[in-house]
Structure formats: structure tokens, C-alpha cells
Amino acid sequence: MTDAAYDALVVGAGHNGLACAAYLARSGRKVLVLEAAERPGGLAATREFADGFRVSAAAHLLNMLSPEVARDLALERHGLAYAARHLKTVVLPGDGRQLVIDGDRLEGASANDQAAFSEFQRQTQRFAKVLNRFCARPFPRLCERRGRDHRLLAKLAWDLRALGKADLRELLRIGAINIHDLAQERFDNPLLKAALGMDAVLGSHMGPRSPNTVYAYLHRHLNDGGQGPALVKGGMGALGDAFAAAAEAAGATIRYGARVAGIDLSDCRTVGVTLADGSALAAPLVASNADLASTFQLVGLLNLDAGFVRRVHNFRARGVTAKLHLALDGLPEFQDLSPADAGSRLLAAASMDGIEAAFNHAKYGECSPGPVMEISVPTVHDDSLAPPGKHVLSAVAQYAPYALKAGWQVGRETFMRACLARLEALAPGIGERVIAAELLTPPDLEAQFGLRGGHWHHGEIALDQALFTRPVPGANHYATPVPGLYLCGASAHPGGGLLGLAGRNAAKAILAGEAAA
User: Fold this and answer.
1) Which residues pair with 487 in a beta bridge?
2) How confident is the model at residue 1 (pLDDT cuts 50, 70, 90)?
């Protein structure tokens, strides 16, 4: 049975899918978003994990949202609010020392490191602004003689030239190197180096010595202005709800509990989708917010060129990041940290070498016995997430490989114990405060959020998988080898993070393609 025709179907109500739907609907298209879950947002989700305790289930801090997307879709008018903004970052090695990063100001570092960091922040923000311009529009095709591509290339060249000779030379020098070497040459404080290393590797199958981690660091700081992340009021699900409200206000329809089982083709062209219940929906255009591999599984690999299938298979998306949630009967007491600063962004990392040592285990299919973590206690700023007097702790923990050699039936408890031991060293007595605990491994993230391989960014943020090469040749300008099928999720340019730009850029590419047809 075939349902009523639509101009466009969007597979997945993650924030990028909803952004794509909103922009398409604003242009007058009849758009239907199909979401397998019962709520929007994808990784931007809030849910209850213990009686009365709610948590941002995956992403828990917001620092990359595109201001243009937020403005275009009026996200604050649609319910997005902040419990706290410009959070400090506090590095806690567990030995009584600490380092506080507050914008470009350091506490606990030497005057030399302070001066070097101020200059580093200035330069990083200049680079990030240029990179953001690259990310805020579809990347031009480099081998085609079209006026639009020529204009985009001219804009890119102008943006780079505007950096000036010194900064452009430095960007070319450091763009593809590792964050370890860059930090070593600029700073002395090991905790400051650890903070930079964490920013470069969170969510990725990389260590500080891995190539491209400087690029990954710049990507993470695209839109934060160097001021630190924000905490969304009500948990990150409020961001997903705001995107959904914006899409519906623009005229799009969202259908929940609608799992797409296949993308339908006729004469090698997209004609709609088939749902898990067997019903079919017709549309000449499908935009997929699913990851790269999942999208083409829905198409059917036999319908694709063998060379393209090989490129999809080789796209690196090996998850190594787990999410830990704790329900606590009181505020944890971190060593030498004031209760007011307990609501900061806390990093459990002592040094670059410590992060690299943790990563070494993941290379061989093992969990790190000494995980590094990004920790948030959101209830310091938002008491709606827990019963009165209680608290929630949320931690992004690395390294926990998707393909664990021992298997996750065995490894789950082992990694949980390692994470709790690390927290106990930072906040003695926290174990006695735990009412309930939950660990989401990469396979759990795959099962709950549809992330193939459990990779938070739908694929590594590296130069060979970024800009005009993301995700793979043949699908690197949102359109795919299948006419009528587009990518609008984090697999596409500019990549992962709660940006919203992949969805917006995909919608613009779709509309530009229709105008040129």
C-alpha cells in the first residue's frame, strides 16, 4: 500500500535531519520526517535512567551549535533555554592539583603559559572562524567548471588570504599534525596540555599523537567563541525538541515510531521508502540523517557500484566512547574544588601521555583500565533533572572500543569499575553516594541511537574524511550516486557535533539542484 506522495522524505529526526526538513519546508516543499524512536533529537536526548533522575543520554554539553541555524530556526523561541553558559573547564588529575580554563584566562598556570595560551586562543579563534565559513556552506566541486563553484572557491581563497601571511603559514603548518606536538612546543603545564588533548580526541578513535588531531581540535571549537560550553535547561533533549518544533512550525510533519526498512528505487532512482510495517511512502527525494553505512544498507549494496561500496566500507567510524550516568544522593565532593565549581566542565586527565596510554588499549580491542573522562554535574545548575537534594553525574568516558576483544558481556562491568575507580580518586566517597548507575557502551549507542559502530560523529573528523572529501568521493556534496538520495547527517560535510550545518547545507544543495534542473 502506498501512502500520499510528499516532495521530500527525511530519514531520522536527529537535529540535522530536522534542520534539513525545516529549511526544505520553509521553501514550500511538503516534507515528512520519519523517526524510529518516539522522540526527536537523536543524540540530543534527555531521558530518565533511574526513578526521578533524568540525564542527557548522549551529548551533554553544547558548544558547537551554529548561531546562523539557531537564528534561522528561532530555536530559543521554540523552547531552547540555557541553565548555564560559558562554563569553565577544570582539569582534575586526582593528585590535589588542578587547572581552571575560563575563556582565555588560566588559573593554576605560570605567567609564561598564560601569555602563550592567550595568543593560542586568539589564533585558534581566527582559524575556527575561517573553518566555520568553510563549514557553513556546501564545499565547491574542485573539478567542475560551474559559475557557482567558481564563486565558492573564490570565497574560500579570500577567507584564507584574510588570515594574513603569518597565520596562514601557521595554519598550513599545523593543520594536519597532532595536538601533542603542537602543545609540547607552546606550553609547559601538563594539565593545560591534557585539556587540549581531550578537546582533540573526545568521541574519536584517536589519541593525542594521532595525525589530524589539531584539525579535530579546531572543528570542536567552531562556534564556541573560546568562551566554553553551555548547559541546556532540561537536558539536551530540549535542543532536540526545539529543532522539532522549528521544523513543524515551518510546515514539516514528523512521524514517530516509523522505522525505515528500505529506500526504494525505480530505474535506479529514488522513489520513496518502505517502513518496517510494510507500508510505502512515495517521494522523488529522500534525505538521510542516518550514518553513511546505514544509509546505503537501506538502499541495498547490490544497487551500488562496487568501487563506491568499497569506499563506504573503508570510511572510518569505529566508536571508542562510552557514556556513564550516576544518580547520586548528594553533591559529589571533588578534591580541592569548591561546590560552586562542581558545575563546571570537569576533565579527568593528568597529562597528554596519560591520554595516549589510555588510547593504546583501544588499538588492541581492550578497554582502558585508566579511562579519561569529560564530567558534568548538570544538577548544580538545573535542579529539574533530579529529586530535591539529589544530583546527576554525566561522564563521557574513553577508551572503550566498539569491537571489544573480550566482548561487552564481560567488559561492561570491568569498564564500569574502572570509571568508578577514577571518579573515586577525584571525589573520595562518591561510590557511597551512588543510588543507580548506567553505562552506555558503543554497541548500546548503536542500538539506541542508530550509530553504526557507535561512533559519536558518524565517522572520524580527519582531513581525509573532512571538507570536500567527506564522507567519500561520490557522496561528498550531499547528493549520492543514487539520483534523488541525499545525505543530511553528520556523515556529510562538515561532520559531527551539534552544529545543524550538515542539515542546512544539504537542504541548500537540494534546492540549488532543483533550481538548476
Assistant:
1) 288
2) very low
Query: How many other C-beta atoms can be found within 10 angstroms of the C-beta atom of residue 28?
Result: 10
Q: pTM of the prediction? A: 0.94
Per residue, the 3-state secondary structure of 101-143, as one string, reads: EECCEEECCCHHHHHHHHHHHHHHHHHHHHHHHHHCCCCCCCC
Q: How many CA within 13 A on the CB side of residue 383?
A: 6
Distance CA 302, CA 103 (A): 51
**Euclidean distance between CA atoms 451 and 201, whole angstroms:** 18
Total number of residues shown for the chain: 517
Supply the DSSP string of 126-186, one letter for each residue: HHHHHHHHHHTSPPPPTT---HHHHHHHHHHHHHHHTT-HHHHHHHHHHTTS-HHHHHHHH
Q: Are strands 269-275 and 321-328 parallel, antiparallel or unpaired?
A: unpaired
Buried b (16+ CB within 10 A) or exposed e, 250-288: bbbebeeebebeebbbeeeebbbbbbeeeeebebbbbbb
Beta-sheet pairing, 434-440 with 391-398: unpaired
Q: What is the C-alpha separation between 332 and 57, in angstroms, rounded?
A: 20
Read off the C-alpha cell for 144: 567542475
Location of C-alpha cell 520553509: 26
User: Tell me: the pLDDT tens digits for 204-259?
Assistant: 999 999 999 999 999 999 888 778 999 999 999 999 999 999 999 999 999 999 99
For residues 220-248, one letter each, b for 16 or more C-beta atoms within 10 angstroms of the residue's C-beta and e for the rest, the string is: bbbbbeeebbbbbbbbbbbbbbbbbbbbb
User: Which residues, other chains included, contact 165 with Cβ-Cβ below 8 Å and sequence gap of 6+?
Assistant: none
Q: How are strands ordered across the β-sheet holding 280-282? A: 260-266, 269-275, 280-282
Phi-psi sector, 407: left (phi>0), alpha (psi -120 to 50), beta:
left
Amino acid at 431: G
- DSSP state for residue 394 in the 8-state scheme: E
Helix (H), strand (E) at residue 486: strand 485-487
**Bridge partners, residue 436, by sequence:** 327
Name the CA dihedral angle for 299, 441, 50, 17, rounded to a multiple of 10 degrees: -30
Q: Is the pLDDT of residue 176 over 90?
A: no
| Cβ neighbours of residue 486 closer than 8 Å, sequence gap 6 or more | 285, 286, 287, 288, 478, 479, 480, 506, 509, 510
Give dist(CA 268, CA 257) in Å, integer.
28
Residue pair 497/220 in contact (Cβ under 8 Å)? The answer is yes
Cell numbers 593543520 correspond to: 175
Reduced to 3 states (helix: H, G, I; strand: E, B; else coil), residue 256 is: strand
Cell 528500505 belongs to residue: 262
